[in-house]
Design a protein that fits this description.
- Helices cover 36% and strands 25% of the residues.
- By secondary structure, the chain is α+β, with helices and mostly antiparallel strands.
- The protein folds into 3 domains: 127 residues, Rossmann fold, CATH 3.40.50.20; 154 residues, ATP-grasp fold, B domain (D-amino Acid Aminotransferase, Chain A, domain 1, 2-Layer Sandwich), CATH 3.30.470.20; 67 residues, Dna Ligase, domain 1.
- The protein has a 7-stranded mixed beta sheet, sandwiched between helices. Strands 14-13-12-15-16 form a 5-stranded antiparallel beta sheet. Strands 8-11-9-10 form a 4-stranded antiparallel beta sheet.
- The termini are far apart.
- The relative contact order is 0.12.
- It comes from Natronogracilivirga saccharolytica.
Length: 395
């Protein structure tokens, strides 16, 4: 079987670094015996780019320092024929660079620069087909405030919230506290641009609110303070496809020790840490009525389309257990473990899910490159003939 190179990009400068490593290794394992040859592109916590087959082996991470020392520094380049390549540059006086054609890139980052559109922008610049949402949808999806505001404008129900910036908190702390209290306790404080429940805190009174805000500012310069839904049932749903053609998965009810799931509930429970997001305790399908299930799936698909998403995403909803009211909470444009457990319950295997992700990436890339991307006029030659004086005289 002829194999194509699939660059799996993961790690990164993010509090969700380890979760990303697990997702990448799970994906590489699921692609065994397929036409895809997984190539690691591991970004360390300090931002260094490394490659090497050992980086897709979980055992290597028992000694992180040694694993990184064995890694080969790498970078992207575009060849004379216009093909994007991953250049691996091993150390040593007589070592030669390896040029690895990058046929498709699988984005397996979680949080920060890997999921917020920044790395996606790099892929666009290097003209690499990449999985998941594009620059704009990734940026909006990562910014909880923008995502909620866009949903509000389209009539999607969301809970009331107050946005706080660090500078405003320092200058107008008392006013902001009173503004938050007008929403009513209990409140949840969360960073605007983080996932995996990192930096999220519940506040029952003014003292707890003050502490929660100060703690959350350690992770982000912008926060959302939201009215708590109580009694709460969390319901999640995954969407696969692009903004025009997509399908929704079965729904799940994630389970945790507290009303709001913690990082530990999501990644360090159930079957063990090596399972990533798949290890979390959950009920699949979610124990809600068929009417509520359909409502949530319709909302998930609608939001996915409104934000212009692609690939696979997981959308998280809050349901008032007494009234049945549903509120959109957030979207994960690169969900932990690619939410494969939800698609397995929808009778789509992990390998098939990844194949569909790659197919969507290739389709979007082909569509992009079918457009006119440059203007075939050598304007500079005309300007050069006129000289700098002529250029200054007019545009």
């Amino acid at each position: 079987m002829q194999q194509n190179n699939l660059v799996i990009a993961f790690g990164g400068v993010s509090p969700e670094h380890e979760v990303s490593v697990l997702t990448a290794i799970q994906a590489a394992s699921a692609l065994k015996d397929t036409k895809w040859n997984p190539i690691a592109l591991y970004i360390t916590k300090s931002g260094q780019w490394l490659t090497g087959s050992h980086l897709l082996d979980l055992e290597s991470y028992k000694d992180l320092k040694q694993s990184q020392e064995k890694g080969i520094p790498c970078h992207f380049t575009i060849s004379d024929t216009g093909k994007t390549e991953l250049i691996a540059r091993p150390g040593g006086l007589f070592s030669r660079d390896s040029r690895i054609p990058a046929d498709v890139l699988l984005c397996a980052f979680h949080g920060s620069d890997g999921e917020n559109g920044a790395f996606q922008g790099l892929c666009e610049t290097m003209n690499i087909p990449y999985t998941g949402s594009g620059v704009t949808a990734s940026a909006i999806g990562m910014d909880k405030r923008l995502a909620k505001e866009l949903c509000r404008q389209h009539g999607i129900p969301v809970v009331d919230d107050i946005r706080i910036t660090e500078e405003n908190w320092v200058e107008n702390k008392q006013d902001l506290i009173e503004k938050c209290e007008s929403v009513g306790y209990p409140l949840y404080v969360k960073p605007v641009a983080l996932g995996s429940s990192i930096g999220v805190h519940r506040a029952e009174n003014r003292s707890e609110l003050d502490d929660a805000v100060e703690e959350s500012f350690r992770y982000d310069s912008g926060l959302l303070v939201e009215k708590a839904v109580h009694p709460l049932t969390e319901i999640n749903c995954s969407v696969l496809g692009d903004e025009d053609h997509f399908r929704t998965s079965v729904c799940e009810q994630p389970l945790g020790k507290e009303e709001l799931l913690s990082f530990e509930d999501k990644y360090m429970s159930g079957e063990g840490e090596a399972k990533g997001m798949a290890s979390a305790s959950r009920k699949i399908p979610a124990p809600v009525s068929s009417e509520k299930t359909e409502e949530i799936r319709n909302l998930a698909g609608n939001i996915f389309s409104i934000l212009g998403c692609a690939g696979v995403a997981r959308l998280d909803f809050l349901m008032n257990s007494d009234t049945g009211e549903i509120f959109f909470n957030e979207i994960n444009t690169i969900p932990g473990s690619f939410s494969f457990y939800l698609w397995e319950a929808t009778e789509i295997g992990f390998d098939t899910l990844l194949e569909e992700l790659i197919s969507v990436a290739q389709k979007r890339h082909k569509k992009k490159n079918s457009r006119i991307r440059s203007h075939e006029v050598n304007l500079l030659s005309q300007k050069a003939m006129r000289g700098l004086k002529g250029i200054k005289g007019g545009k």
